[in-house]
Write a structure and sequence with these properties.
The protein has two domains: 200 residues, no CATH class; 167 residues, no CATH class. Helix content is 79%, strand content 0%. The longest helix has 72 residues.
Length: 425
């Protein structure tokens, strides 16, 4: 480019286009195409962006010095040009330091994340381990603090199921013999026990229902109800003694015969033992829990709902709940992750933006005679949006035009008033 020119022209062109002497070498060195992988990545990471910014600053500085000849405030313009180079140097240093800072922040964030994951897993395991105990505690609080006698209801149902299981086991051979005589085939016990268990469960629950109704009639002193329900209770007693408790007593006869010689219980003795067993089982279970559980079950079956005792409101406790400490830990760790993520994002974006902003300041200095960005950027909030930047540029241009028209001895108030008139369309 310079070989065909004379000496003076060659010197002038060399001064005007001096970046051509070193920009290719700088870019090739920063690109590091022939270096090892780690060296190439390091050069591209640390040197490529600063090299482009320096080359851009050189070309824009040449154009700015050429326009300085026709500018009015040359000293101020040249001072701003030097300050722009100073900002570029600071931005490059901030860029290198920001990369190191980002690496340290990333390492600290990874350590914190591993710690959070470990503590989270430990907390989840702890919650799973202690959840059954918490469920038992909440369930016990609900049972003990509720005006509904849930314990009596559960015990009544449990006892009916246990009694139905026992009598299913005892009466299965008798039922199998009856069906075998009717059908002429031997049925499997499993085809008989399940429907027999359901049938006996209903009979036993009905027995408690009749007993509850009989007790309510006695309390109300209703003679006709007492007589009617007494007949029904006698029939229920006869059915259960003959078909259930008699079989239960027959199953105990071998045990009696083992400890006595020529033991003969007889039909009256069997029925007497069966009646005694029925009376003992019903009395003990009734006074212990069935007296409170059976009326509630009958209200539910009849669709009347549970009539609760009016008293102090029991505290409502959730049966399945997570401990407040676990929830607070999740909230704290979530806020920490959000804050740390914003810090990592800022430490990743700010260093290269410093260098890019310093290069843009060279261009805006050439075009408008002022800087667009105020460097350095301390955080993401200091980076203004595009609309604010454009308004600042026009405001600075308007202020410069007004200051050139207003005399130097004019007051600041008059300057501001003229500014406002210029800005209003």
């Amino acid at each position: 480019m310079f070989n065909g020119n004379s000496g003076m022209v060659k010197i002038i062109l060399s001064v005007l286009f001096f970046p051509l002497f070193f920009q290719d070498a700088f870019i090739s060195f920063a690109w590091g195409a022939g270096d090892q992988l780690w060296m190439m990545l390091g050069k591209r990471l640390f040197l490529l962006l600063p090299v482009f910014a320096i080359i851009l600053g050189c070309w824009v500085s040449i154009a700015s010095l050429m326009t300085a000849l026709i500018r009015q405030r040359r000293i101020e313009f040249l001072t701003l040009l030097l300050v722009t180079w100073w900002d570029l140097g600071k931005s490059i240093v901030y860029f290198w330091g920001g990369i190191v800072k980002f690496a340290l922040n990333l390492l600290a964030a990874l350590v914190g994340l591993v710690k959070i994951i470990s503590l989270g897993i430990l907390s989840i395991v702890q919650e799973l381990v202690f959840m059954p105990f918490r469920l038992i505690r909440n369930a016990s609080q609900n049972l003990l603090g509720s005006p509904v006698p849930w314990i009596a209801v559960y015990l009544t149902l449990f006892w009916c199921i246990i009694e139905a299981l026992i009598f299913t086991y005892v009466t299965t051979p008798l039922v199998m013999d009856v069906f075998s005589n009717i059908t002429g085939e031997q049925l499997h016990p499993y085809f008989i026990r399940i429907p027999l268990f359901i049938f006996l469960l209903f009979i036993i629950m009905g027995s408690y229902a009749v007993l509850s109704t009989f007790v309510a009639a006695v309390k109300s002193k209703n003679i006709s109800s007492i007589l009617g329900i007494g007949v029904i209770e006698t029939v229920a007693l006869f059915v259960e003694v003959v078909f259930l408790y008699r079989e239960f007593v027959d199953s105990l006869v071998p045990w009696f015969a083992q400890y006595s010689e020529n033991f003969q219980l007889g039909i009256f003795g069997t029925l007497a033992f069966a009646c005694f067993a029925w009376f003992g089982v019903r009395s003990l279970s009734w006074f212990l829990f069935a007296a409170h559980g059976t009326p509630l079950l009958m209200q539910v079956i009849q669709g009347k709902g549970m009539q609760l005792f009016r008293g102090a409101e029991a505290p409502k406790v959730r049966l399945i709940s997570v401990s407040p400490e676990f929830v607070n830990k999740i909230k704290e760790e979530s806020s920490w992750i959000m804050t740390k993520g914003e810090e990592l994002l800022a430490s990743l974006m700010l260093p290269p933006l410093q260098v890019v902003a310093s290069g843009i300041n060279f261009c805006t200095l050439l075009l408008s005679g002022s800087h667009l960005f105020e460097l350095p950027f301390n955080n993401m909030q200091t980076i203004s949006n595009s609309k604010t930047l454009i308004e600042n540029i026009f405001r600075r241009g308007t202020r410069k035009k007004v200051s050139e028209r207003v005399p130097e001895k004019a007051s600041e108030k008059s300057l501001e008033s003229v500014e406002e008139k210029e800005l209003i369309p």
